[in-house]
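For this section, I looked closely at a protein sequence along with its fold in token form, which I now present.
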Amino acid sequence: MCSQTKAAALMANIPRADIDPSGVFKYVLIRVHSREEGDDSEIDIVRGYGWAEFHADIYDKVSEELEKGGHLDCECVGGGRIQHDPQDKKIHVYGYSIGFGRANHAVTTEQLKAQYLDYEVTWDNEGY
């Protein structure tokens, strides 16, 4: 019988993408790891919000929430910006974070496409 670790169960319930409903805002790509011995599971999640002055503001808030129980560990693997236009059903990912570097926008785009099925989701490395 295969048993799932507490960390893996927690990761299964984490939304892969959570962004503001519209506008242009900073985002971070976060790799969430299990802290449990023998469990090397990990997921990448996207978080983007207009309230953040800095990319680190998003990472600090999200990582603090996810790491609370001691089962998960977070690592910011980069950042950028998202332009979300719900009226035209378009999301564009671009730019970089001065503090965390450029996220792999292709990974970010795949996470967003899985959640926004009827959207056109694009990316490029241009801009800040």
